[in-house]
Design a protein that fits this description.
The protein is of the alpha+beta class. 40% of the residues lie in helices and 8% in strands.
């Protein structure tokens, strides 16, 4: 099942054609011309200024900086933070632990990682008893952040990704909560959803999800399919949307007559490698 994302369709005209030398079918023209067209369709430029551990430095009070004072904003955000910290603690090797806590001996580092895992489990169990998107009260928020900051060497590594996941999850479920988050933070997440971004050297654009367009070139020979069907929709890996497809794409194909008659139940889905 796929979520019902609201969207406004935009027509993008691209110069694409079949390879006349080989007679191969038309595929999505990935290149600088397409990147420029996607950037133009996007309209508003998007800067790439991703969150990093430097946004969570330790302050003089011994606590890490927060992206804004109201973070973590809901109980699902706390679940996300402790789940990522737990995963990171579980996969921390002795060598990595030595770099994170150079003043501790090996036994102390092992005990500390075990304690982090135990405390994460306690916070996660508490958070799961609360409504996921319920606001966290300030006393609880302060207590949680004090605890999270006490494990700063490891917590700083997971905080950027956890913050992004927590904010985007809330916005996906409750778009009306956008006002809760600072405009600067939203601007720093925007690149994850952009069609294209301009850097000093060139325009970077990923192959977008699209309707009624040329398909991506795949490992499977789809020349026969292209002759009898049109691409209704293609979805590719997009971490910001939670689409984890690896090196595959999801393609929905339909016969032109069925599309014209709106017999969408006749569409066929394939997942070829690219």
């Amino acid at each position: 099942m796929l979520p019902r994302w609201p969207f406004v369709p935009t027509v993008i005209e691209l110069l694409a054609g079949a390879d006349t030398r080989t007679g191969s079918a038309i595929t999505w023209p990935d290149g600088p011309t397409t990147a420029d067209a996607l950037l133009a369709a996007q309209g508003t430029p998007v800067a790439v200024f991703a969150l990093s551990p430097n946004d969570f430095n330790l302050a003089g009070n011994g606590q890490m900086d927060r992206p804004w004072p109201g973070f973590p904003h809901d109980w699902l955000a706390i679940q996300t933070l402790v789940a990522m910290l737990l995963r990171e603690a579980a996969r921390t090797t002795p060598t990595s632990a030595r770099a994170l806590w150079p003043d501790l001996d090996e036994d102390a580092r092992r005990d500390l990682l075990a304690r982090i895992e135990s405390e994460c489990a306690e916070w996660h169990a508490l958070a799961r008893t609360k409504p996921a998107f319920a606001d966290v009260t300030e006393p609880v928020r302060a207590a949680f952040w004090e605890w999270f900051s006490s494990h700063a060497p490891l917590a700083r590594l997971v905080a950027p990704g956890a913050c992004v996941a927590a904010v985007e999850t809330t916005l996906h479920a409750l778009p009306g909560k956008a006002a809760v988050f600072p405009d600067e933070l939203i601007a720093r997440l925007a690149y994850r959803h952009a069609l294209a971004v301009r850097t000093a050297s060139r325009v970077h654009a990923r192959v977008p999800d699209r309707l009624l367009a040329a398909p991506s070139e795949t490992e499977a020979d789809q020349s026969s399919r292209v002759q009898r069907q049109v691409l209704l929709l293609e979805l590719s890996t997009d971490e910001a949307l939670g689409h984890h497809l690896g090196d595959h794409v999801l393609q929905f194909w339909i016969a032109p007559d069925d599309l014209a008659a709106r017999r969408l139940d006749t569409a066929e889905m394939v997942a070829p490698a690219i």
